[in-house]
C-alpha cells in the first residue's frame, strides 16, 4: 500500500491499518485491492464457502492485486457508484449466502482520488435482530405479553396485558408473578411445576386464570416460553 500512497509515513499508515480490529480493505485509484488487514481477511475467509455459491472462483487469500469487481456480478454499476462518491457511502451487499455492510470512503490528495478505503462488517446479526424486532413489534400490537425473570420477577408488560388486568406498568414491574395468581393456585404443585418447566426451557401452553387489579379475573389460552437469552431468561407470556 505504501507505494500507491506515495506520501510521507505511508508505511506507518499501512502498518496501522493492519493493527486495526475493524475489517479494512484498501484499493488504489483503479479499484485494485492493495491491502487487506488481518481482520477483513479473517472475515472473508470465514465466509468463503457461502460466497462461492455466487462466485465459484472466490479465494480470500488471492484478492490483493485483483479488482474489487471480484465481488460484483455487475461491476460497471458498482464502479459508477464509487466514481460518483463525494462523501462516505454505506451499503449492504449480498454475495452468495453472505451479507455484508460496507462503508466506503475515497482517499484524496490535492482534490484527486488516489484510493478507496472500505470497512466490511458481517450484516447477518444486524439483519437477524432487525427481523426479530419486527416480529416482536407485531406480537406486541396483537397480543397481551408480559416478561419475567426466572425467579418470577416482572420485567415488563405491554399495553394489551396491562389493560386486560387493569394495571399500570409501574404497579407491577419488579413484583412477582404471584400477584396474578390466587392463593390456592400459588401453593399448588401445578404452579411449582409450571415454573420448574419454564426454567428447564420447556414450552408451557394452556388456559391460565389470572387475577387482575381489584380481584377481577382474566383467562385466556396463552403460550409461555423461555427466551433464548444469557442465563436462561427472561420468560415471555
At a glance:
The chain is of the alpha+beta class and 237 residues long.
Second-tier CATH architecture of the largest domain: 2-Layer Sandwich
Distance between the termini: 56 Å
Categorize the overall geometry: elongated
Structural class: alpha+beta
Quaternary organisation of the protein chains: single chain
| Number of structural units classed as domains | 2
- Calculate the mean pLDDT score and round it: 82
Q: How many β-strand runs?
A: 11
Topology:
Elements: H1 2-5, H2 10-19, E1 23-28, E2 33-36, H3 38-46, H4 48-51, H5 75-83, E3 89-95, E4 98-109, E5 112-122, H6 124-142, E6 146-148, E7 154-157, H7 159-165, H8 169-172, H9 183-186, H10 189-199, E8 207-211, E9 217-221, E10 225-226, E11 235-236
Antiparallel strand pairs: 1-2, 1-5, 3-4, 4-5, 6-7, 6-11, 8-9, 10-11
List keywords for this structure.
4-stranded antiparallel sheet, 34% helix, 5-stranded antiparallel sheet, 237 residues, Beta-Lactamase
What features would you describe in this structure?
The structure is a single chain. 34% of the residues lie in helices and 26% in strands. With 237 residues, the chain is α+β, with helices and mostly antiparallel strands. The protein has 2 domains: 2-122, 2-Layer Sandwich (Beta-Lactamase); 143-236, 2-Layer Sandwich (Beta-Lactamase), CATH 3.30.450. The strands form 3 sheets. A 5-stranded antiparallel β-sheet has the order 2-1-5-4-3. The termini are far apart.
